[in-house]
Amino acid sequence: MKQLTCLIVALAGAAACGSALGQEHGSRESSGVIKMAPDKPPAGNVGAQGTTPVPGPAREHGSRSQISDFCASVNREARDANNELSPALEGRVSGKGRLRFHSAPNTGCRVRNSFIVPGDVVIARRRHGEWLLIDYVSRDGVMHSAWVDAARIALKESAARP
């Protein structure tokens, strides 16, 4: 409960929880503490919106860099879109198995070894198509921000609607 309260305070922009959670002061749109290291998708994999193909692995040395640049670009576009959930909504992971984190709303931008499990509580801040940008506070108090499959998050309706 303390972690969820701290997360809500952090979302409101208070610096007190930010330093305790290992988060940099400043924009709440930071990507949290997760290092963005996407897996290499298979060649020809199409993005979640069906419009932007994920670059296939290149033969030269820079293929991971190309995928990372692609994911950064998709993430920037999604965050610039007018898709903020106001107020942010609390949700709980549903379904079975791990729900993988993504650095951008695209299946090719999966963050290696980062996931949440059914029952975990999250705060949803943005919706982009079939994706949600969520904040999650891990058991050790570290706040993570990532894109996840919206179908796996059961959102609670806000009680403070006007």
Give an account of the 3D structure.
A five-stranded antiparallel beta sheet has the order 6-5-4-1-7. Strands 2-3 form a two-stranded antiparallel sheet. It has one domain (2-155). The chain is built from three helices and seven strands; from the N terminus they run αααβββββββ. It is globular and about 40 Å long. It is α+β, with helices and mostly antiparallel strands and 162 residues long. The longest helix has 18 residues, at 63-80. It has helices at 2-11, 15-20, 63-80; strands at 84-93, 99-102, 110-116, 121-128, 131-137, 143-149, 153-155.
Quick recap of the structure?
The protein is an alpha+beta fold and 162 residues long. It contains 3 helices and 7 strands, in the order αααβββββββ. The radius of gyration is 16 Å and the shape is globular.
